[in-house]
Specification:
- The complex is a heterodimer of chains A (232) and B (511).
- Chain A is built from 9 helices and 5 strands; from the N terminus they run H-H-H-H-E-H-E-H-E-H-E-H-E-H.
- Chain A is of the alpha/beta class and 232 residues long.
- Chain A folds into 2 domains: 2-99, Methyltransferase, Methionine Synthase (B12-binding Domains), Chain A, domain 1, CATH 1.10.1240.10; 104-231, Rossmann fold (3-Layer(aba) Sandwich).
- Chain A has a 5-stranded parallel sheet with strand order 2-1-3-4-5, with helices on both faces.
- In chain A, helix 1 runs antiparallel to helix 2, helix 1 (2-15) crosses helix 4 (75-92) and helix 6 packs across helix 7 (171-182).
- Chain A is elongated and about 55 Å long.
- The longest helix of chain B is centred in the middle third of the chain and has 22 residues, at 276-297.
- In chain B, 40% of the residues lie in helices and 19% in strands.
- In chain B, strands 1-7-21-20-17-15-12-11-10 form a 9-stranded mixed sheet. Chain B has a 5-stranded mixed sheet with strand order 3-4-2-14-13.
- With 511 residues, chain B is of the alpha/beta class.
- In chain B, a hairpin with a 3-residue loop joins strand 13 and strand 14.
- The chains are: A alpha/beta (232), B alpha/beta (511).
- The A-B interface holds A 16, 22-23, 25-26, 74-77, 79-80, 83, 120, 123, 126-127, 138 and B 435-436, 438, 440-441, 443-445, 447-448.
- Bound molecules: cobalamin.
- Cobalamin (B12) binds at residues 115-122, 124-125, 161-163, 165-168, 192-197, 212, 214-215, 218 of chain A.
């Protein structure tokens, strides 16, 4: 029973099915339970959240990643699978209780910086981070530095991810770092940046902790930074 | 019906109905006055018997006849010429059915190039920064029978190649006029299971080539049903002259009931007018002449309207393929053939450039995109041709295969359909109400169904160098490593027994 449920969760992540209304990749599964329903059923059957997360959702996403590496899956498959994971996480959220509230791999505040409206790349990063097991608070586009820092503090986030696509707005990323320093939060909140005009060098220049050239790099860098933070 | 090629949705009609009729009328007028200059006596008597007026003359050392062909003779031939012609193949699934009234376009190779380009990766050290880099080095070798075998084998693997015309001139020491045709056809047939089309250089070998094809097809009647070989006759020497030797072959092939392409290739600016009206009127009259002779020799014989109009280069009078006029000429001819309900043989994808690269890609993509829109049944010269058909590059053929894939995708039926409206509205509504407003989920479905074009397969990751040719070359090596689809041992044995002149080294079963 338990194994079967977990197996179905993995399969439905691969199929990118958030809920019973979604079709699958190869066939039309519409009507059959999707990740949301399966996670609910697992919880009802007393399967603990950690098992659902690690053996179900994360395991599914890991397989998706492998299929991407071998060229069988493409970005739309990854995004769709990540959305399915997110649907499962939403069901689990009220059950992740108490002080040891499980935030998966950690909490990330994502935003496109002030005066910049570009969000395709930022959304991709957000969705993929969620799919990889991070909790993501996405503030959207054109977000002032003060607001980003405010939310990072409120949410007790370990990481801030900033996106900018214009060379005129990328400087606003530096403001976020400064604002964090001013508020004395720099020690607990790491900063990663990305977007076409940015670079490793630019990240160093503004005092950010990392740079990601794409969503995969974003996951890698986020994992490194949050892990290093946990250990220190 | 054949499943190969691509059905062109809504073919582009460059010429209006009035313009088509105007070309038709002008061509028919030309056939009456000045008429054609025919060097082949039997053709002359066929035409005369049908109602043409004939006047003997002398052209240099040769007897010749001015023949004025009345419109009714042409119309009669067009009535008897079939609108559906099947090109047979060793593998029946690879058969190509040409339907002059349909819009299915097929792509194939062609031209007897003298050279074969070999690409070899070589490592260089930069004098500036001392870094090593790998570059493709190109060597030009004379064509030979081994290259022809390799070409046919490659053609077998290229998914967008529908028919094979020998693409390389065999210049081995042991190839002579007396044995060339049999070896060329054998080298082709023994390495490809798709339709083989070709010209016969020496009339005396026609019978041997047909004999070989009969063994493969399983008999005389079987060959007519499944013509594993079809022929090309360049019966016209532009402007408006009928060549004796080729006319002889044309008549013989017509009587065998095997498919034949009437191929005429005038050059706008030298052997034909360079302007569209003049070129098309003449090349059309020339193609019609060939069809008339073919149908007079054997009414109802399968015949294909082959027009290969090219433009002259203004600096040296060589052929030019990658120019807009070339597309104008060819698109107009495709319309003329459709008007006559005779399958059309057309051309696209020849690079004037000498080597693969930017110029070749521009020229090829240009004609690959334009000409198929007119929906001719066959597009030849489409694989690997460079240097205005003088050179064949197998690496280029792989690139062309991809470019043809793009062109074919472009021709696909439109997805705008009444039954899609509700789905579209539902999808957009769903996305508008979702957190990131992304359509990736829906793109994925089309991706899985193969409805999304895969993109350029030879994209390198270097930031300071084009790596396409290096990657293509790896692909070529992979393809060349595949097992050839040879004829069976028994068939090879019988062919070698019955066909004098075949080179023993071409027999895959000889010890
Ligand atoms: C789409 C687009 C738009 C769309 C945006 C739609 C949307 N929902 O985002 C619209 C039309 C709204 C738009 C508007 C404008 N745009 Co615009 N736009 C683009 C375009 C074509 C693509 C950007 C994109 O989505 N790429 C695809 C995604 C997947 O890639 P990505 O964003 O780079 O993200 C990846 C990585 O960078 C990284 N990443 C991104 N964010 C983050 C964050 C983190 C933390 C990490 C780790 C990684 C990471 O991972 C992502 C996934 O792999 C670019 C051209 C280009 N080649 O980039 C121009 C471009 C960015 N735009 C440009 C311009 C000039 C404008 C306008 C000023 C145009 C105008 N005159 O109105 C406005 C500005 C609006 C504003 N105030 O922001 C210029 C910018 C030049 C410059 N100054 O730097 C560009 C480069 C085009 C150009 N060559 O001129 N644009």
């Amino acid at each position: 029973m338990k194994e079967k449920l977990i197996e179905s969760i993995v399969e439905n992540v691969l199929q990118g099915r958030r809920n019973k209304d979604d079709e699958g990749i190869e066939e039309d599964f519409a009507g059959e339970p999707g990740v949301a329903e399966l996670v609910q059923e697992a919880l009802d059957n007393g399967i603990d959240t950690n098992t659902i997360l690690l053996e179900g959702l994360s395991q599914g996403m890991k397989l998706v990643g492998e299929k991407y590496e071998t060229g069988e899956y493409f970005i739309p498959d990854m995004l769709t699978a990540a959305e399915a994971v997110e649907a499962g996480m939403n069901i689990m959220e009220p059950h992740l209780v108490g002080g040891d509230k499980n935030e998966g791999k950690g909490k990330v505040v994502m935003a496109t910086v002030e005066k910049d409206l570009h969000d395709i790349g930022k959304n991709l990063v957000s969705i993929m981070l969620k799919g990889a097991g991070f909790t993501v608070v996405d503030l959207g586009i054109d977000v002032p530095a003060a607001r980003i820092v405010e939310v990072a503090e409120e949410e007790n986030a370990g990481l801030v991810g900033l996106s900018a696509l214009l060379n005129t707005t990328m400087v606003n990323m530096g403001d976020v770092v400064k604002e964090l320093e001013q508020k004395g939060l720099r020690g607990q909140v790491k900063v990663i940046i990305g977007g076409a005009p940015t670079s490793e060098d630019f990240a160093r220049e503004i005092g950010a902790d990392g740079y990601g050239k794409d969503a995969f790099a974003a996951i890698r860098v986020a994992e490194q930074l949050l892990q290093a933070k946990g250990e220190s | 019906m054949s499943e190969r090629g691509v059905i062109v949705d809504n073919p582009y009609e460059r010429l209006s109905r009035e313009q088509v009729e105007l070309i038709d009328k002008t061509s028919l007028d030309l056939l009456e006055n000045p008429g054609i200059l025919c060097y082949h006596e039997e053709s002359v008597s066929l035409l005369e018997k049908a109602g043409a007026s004939v006047k003997a003359t002398r052209e240099g050392e040769h007897d010749a006849w001015w023949v004025r062909i009345p419109a009714k003779v042409v119309k009669k031939a067009l009535e008897t010429a079939p609108s559906i012609v099947t090109l047979g193949a060793r593998n029946p699934e690879n058969r190509v059915v040409l339907d002059a009234e349909g819009t299915r376009v097929h792509f194939g190779s062609g031209s007897e190039t003298n050279y074969w380009l070999e690409v070899e990766p070589e490592t260089y050290v930069s004098k500036q920064d001392g870094h090593e880099r790998v570059f493709p080095v190109i060597k030009r070798n004379r064509g030979n029978v081994d290259y022809l075998c390799r070409s046919a084998h490659l053609a077998e693997q290229l998914e967008n190649l529908d028919f094979f015309i020998r693409n390389i001139n065999v210049q081995d020491e042991d190839i002579t006029t007396e044995n060339k045709d049999v070896n060329v056809f054998f080298a082709s047939l023994n390495n490809i299971t798709k339709p083989v089309i070709g010209g016969v250089a020496d009339f005396n070998q026609l019978e041997k080539v047909v004999g070989m094809a009969e063994i493969i097809a399983g008999g005389k009647a079987e060959l007519v049903k499944n013509p594993v070989v079809s022929f090309i006759t360049s019966v016209i020497k532009s402007p408006l002259q009928v060549v004796a030797e080729t006319a002889e072959k044309l008549i013989a092939i017509a009587r065998l009931g095997l498919p034949v392409v009437i191929s005429t290739s005038p050059q706008g600016g030298s052997t034909a007018p360079i302007d569209e009206m003049g070129m098309v009127a003449q090349v059309n009259a020339e193609a019609l002449t060939g069809i008339v002779i073919n149908q007079l020799a054997n009414p109802g014989a399968p015949v294909i309207y082959g027009a290969v109009p090219v433009r002259a280069r203004m600096d040296d009078l060589h052929d030019m393929y990658g120019v807009p006029e070339f597309c104008h000429y060819n698109m107009a001819c495709a319309q003329m053939a459709r008007y006559y309900k005779v399958p059309c043989y057309s051309t696209a994808g020849v690079g004037d450039a000498k080597v693969p690269g930017i110029q070749a890609s521009v020229e090829k993509m240009f004609t690959f995109t334009a000409v198929p829109f007119a929906a001719p049944d066959l597009i030849h010269y489409a694989f690997g041709l460079l240097d205005k058909t003088q050179t064949f590059s197998p690496d280029q053929a792989i690139l062309d295969n991809h470019q043809i894939g793009m062109a074919k995708f472009l021709q696909r039926e439109s997805g705008v359909k009444a039954e899609e409206a509700d789905r579209t509205k539902k999808m957009i509504e769903e996305v508008m109400n979702s957190p990131y407003r992304m359509y990736a989920r829906y793109a994925r479905k089309m991706l899985r169904r193969g409805q999304i074009f895969a993109g350029f397969p030879f994209e390198g990751d270097a930031e300071d160098q084009d790596q396409t040719l290096l990657m293509v070359n790896e692909k070529l090596k992979e393809i060349e490593g595949k097992e050839p689809q040879h004829l069976s041992e028994d068939i090879c044995h019988r062919i070698f027994e019955k066909t004098p002149g075949l080179l023993p080294r071409l027999n895959p079963y000889s010890k």
